Amino acid sequence: MASCRSDRAQAPRPEAKPVRELIVTAHAYNSVPEQTDARPRETASGEILRPGMRAIAVSADLLAMGLDYGSRVSIESLEGEYVVLDRMGDGHRRSIDVYMGDDRAAAERFGKRKLRLRWLPDRTAKSEER
Q1: CA 89 to CA 120: how far, in whole Å?
Q2: In terms of pTM, does the model score above 0.90?
């Protein structure tokens, strides 16, 4: 009787990278000079922000942890995925700023909170375009 089993060795499956998870202090910000700089829509990554974009700025220590520009993240209590496009000013640690476009009232309602941030290492918006 013929066997359905293949005698060829199966290729090993690539090992799944673990999801990184961190509790961060989250704030919200708008595209206005008093909250950013003289070019409020231009990010540290070179992208131009537009209202409606799901973007965040991260503190330098998070960039050093591998949460680089273009990284896709999920943020506890917020729908959808956000992309790291900007860097926060010096002095912040384990912090993110959630971009709220021109809606100052939404940014004020968001306030300051501790949230769980999740991301897959090496999963960036650019890597998924390939």
Answers
A1: 24
A2: no
